[in-house]
Structure formats: C-alpha cells, structure tokens
Amino acid sequence: MPGSTEKMRDDTYASKKWVVPYKNIVAIHDGEGYVEIVEQTNCFGGACWAEYHYKRTSPLIVSVRNVGNTMRYLTRVGREELILTPSIAAAGIEAVEVDSDTISITYAGLGGGGVGATISRALAEDVIDYDFTEIGGSRRSKGTIVLPKRKRVLIGVDDTDTKEEGATWSLVHNIAHDLDDKNARYISHSIVQLYPVPFKTQNCVSTVVEFACIDEAKLIRDFERLLRKYTLSPETGMVALARFDAEPLREYGRLVKQKQISREMAERTALEAGAEILIDGRGVIGALAALPYFASPMESVVL
C-alpha cells in the first residue's frame, strides 16, 4: 500500500486509536556498510518493546542503545529474512538499503508489532515515502520507509560565559534547537565535565551537540554565526567534526578530564583527527574534548 505520507497523516490511519506515530526517524550512513537509525518516539513503552524484540530477531542489528527519548540502532546494510515468533521475537528490521540520496528501512512484525513496525513509523516526520502490507490482528506485516541519507556532524563548544552571566550548555542547546530543521536534525546534547583548570568560570564543563545532516556546511556556518552573536566571552572555542564516530579523539577527551593541557596540543590533535576549528579562543581545548562524548550524556558528566 504505497502512498504519500502527507495523505496518510490526513486519512483515517492517523486518527485510529491503535496507531501511535513516531515523532521522527533519521538514518545516518557511515559511507561504507553501516547505518545508525535514530528513532524519536512518542511512546517510550512501545520503543522499549521494539528494542527487546528487534535485537533478538534481526541479524542486521549490531547494537541498540537508549539515549533520552530515542532508540539508536546500529545496523549493517543488507537484507535478512526474519523468523518471527509471537511473544519472544515478534518484530524486527528486515532490510537496510542505501541509495545515492536515500536510505530505505524495512520492518516486519506480527499483530500489534506489525502496526508499530509499519504505519507508526511511516507517519514519522521526515519519512519521504512508504510502502506497507495489511496490518493488525494475527497477520504478519511488513513496511518500508524511505528517509533522507544523512551524515553525522558533531559541534563542540566551550567558554561562552563569564563569572557574572551565561551558561555554555544552555546557549549551545538553544542554538541547536533553533537550527533543527529538515536539513539538520538535532539529536543529542552532552555536558562534558573537564579537569578544573585555574581559568575556569565555575564548573569547568564543555558541551557537544550532535546533528544528522544532509548539508553539513550550511549547519556549521549557521551555528558559527549564532554562536559569535550570542557568546559573552572573548575566549570562546568552537570545533566541528563531520564523521560517523569520534574515536580518534577518545584518548584526548579522557586526558582533558585528567589534567590541564595546552592549546597547542589541542590544535595539533584537531588537525590529526580532521576536526575543524571555527572559533579559536582558549575554549578550543575543552570544545575538542567534548566531541567523543556525543550521545553519552550519562558518561560525559563524570570527571
């Protein structure tokens, strides 16, 4: 049953009491053979049920984790027929297929699991197209959604406040929230506790925000413009990394939690890791250290 997501949002499916639309779903490609699917739910209980069954059922799934109100599925690209079993393995991801500009995800499920795996996801905000079979009752159903192919972009910021006013974590969140749109989806925020150096303003933390982007250059340009406009400090640092992971910065991030380091070391590390320094105040030290803690807000606050 293919069709327009706009039409489906207006027809009877959207009004039925057994359909709970996902708020949004984004798909981030690593440029090779992996995709991270980030599902933002309107019903966390339903998302937890799906997580339990999907990781038991789907050979394509490498790992699953919960961050805030999202479930994040790291998957391999490919197709695997699912063996569905009521109660213990009732739904899953059957295919993840990457095209030049889009990523298609096929879900399958039994009964209510089929509803969640099909229509509920087809109604998510950024779905471009969909196709699904009959759903509900005792039937096995399948649904495919088509999403924009996105890249991960991480932005780290430090030192935007003064001892009198401001808070870096809140300014960065508000800028990220304002820039959230169909081009750049704002999907996570982490406050990163750093070693308390003598020139800190108060708590010595930096911040990293994560976006799923179509055009990463536009996002980075717009973020820099707003940060320059609203920062209160002449020592602000802003760095950006357009990369699926931030593993080259993992050890550097740990080091900045342990001791004071030099700006020269930060600049050298940024160059080696492929991170771009957009605003080069002293805050680049902490801004760069924040990047490997993206989507890890419980870990990042620990010194």
TrEMBL record:
Record-linked Gene3D superfamilies: 3.30.70.2200
Domain TiaS-like TCKD: 155-212
Matches recorded under Pfam families: TiaS_TCKD
Protein name: tRNA(Ile2) 2-agmatinylcytidine synthetase
Species assigned in the record: Methanocella conradii (strain DSM 24694 / JCM 17849 / CGMCC 1.5162 / HZ254)
